[in-house]
Write a structure and sequence with these properties.
Layout lengths: L22 H10 L4 H33 L3 E3 L1 E6 L6 E6 L2 H14 L2 E10 L2 E10 L4 E9 L8 H21 L3 E3 L18 H14 L3 H7 L13 H17 L1
Helix pairs in contact: 1-2, 5-7
């Protein structure tokens, strides 16, 4: 008995090489030979999995190539506001959606990538999902939630809109692994005092894991520590923030 033909994977963007037998080739042969419905169904399922796998590989390749071209995004916006009781003032810099889009859209388009959002609101909690799609059909999602942003004396509509914009920026940055940097006139980050450096990527992951575990409000945490997002927390405050989250969660359990 002869061995079954091997299924050899190849790049979906390259023409099929002679002798390669894909699930579609096997399906065509089965149809020609009058194979039964059970065999045809299995081959169709195999073809679908094959196409999905090829699409995923094309997506991963496109993401890797795009990230290699996307530069560090400049923080082009300065924000400042007083606390409602007037006792303190918060200020920070961030990159707005226009700056992010201006930087990444041409590069993503070049590699067949695009992004879109889904937004939901449940009570005072806003959920935003960023979907990154590739032209070959594969897509991946990143979702974040936060409470309405009531800082800076915003009205209810502005509070929701601010949170949606905030989550859109950070789900997109998380999905693509983007980095942002303040415009420091060419000064090297190596000269930044240790106390002024932000938390590392691994520390951000620890914070997010703890926040999810304790069901904490990420927006409240950022407001309390006077930062726009977790990656902006000073490295010197990392342990304090972790302890604060655990303490707040314990207090909620005992309440």
């Amino acid at each position: 008995m002869s061995a079954a033909p091997a299924i050899i994977e190849h790049d979906a963007h390259e023409p099929a090489r002679a002798g390669i037998i894909t699930p579609m080739v096997m399906l065509d042969r089965a149809l020609s030979s009058g194979a039964g419905i059970e065999t045809l169904t299995k081959l169709m399922d195999l073809q679908e999995r094959y196409e999905a796998n090829e699409a995923r590989k094309a997506f991963d390749k496109a993401i890797a190539e795009a990230k290699a071209e996307i530069p560090v995004i400049r923080k082009n916006r300065a924000v400042g506001y007083d606390a409602k009781n007037g006792s303190s003032r918060t200020s920070y810099r961030h990159e707005d959606m226009a700056e992010i889009a201006r930087t990444i859209d041409p590069i993503l388009s070049k590699h067949g990538l695009s992004y879109r959002y889904r937004s939901q609101q449940e009570g005072n909690v806003v959920r935003v999902t960023c979907i990154i799609s590739h032209r070959d059909g594969h897509a991946e999602e990143v979702m974040l939630t936060a409470g309405n942003d009531t800082t800076g004396n915003k009205n209810s509509i502005q509070a929701v809109g601010s949170t949606i914009t905030y989550l859109q920026r950070y789900t997109l940055k998380a999905a693509l692994g983007l980095a942002a940097s303040a415009d420091d006139d060419g000064k090297s980050s190596e000269n930044t005092p240790e106390d002024d450096r932000s938390v590392t990527e691994d520390q951000v992951k620890e914070l997010r894991a703890l926040i999810e575990e304790t069901q904490s409000d990420i927006a409240k945490i950022c407001r309390y520590w006077k930062v726009e997002a977790l990656p902006d927390i000073p490295a010197s405050k990392f342990n304090d923030v972790m302890q604060s989250i655990r303490g707040s969660a314990k207090n909620r359990e005992q309440a």
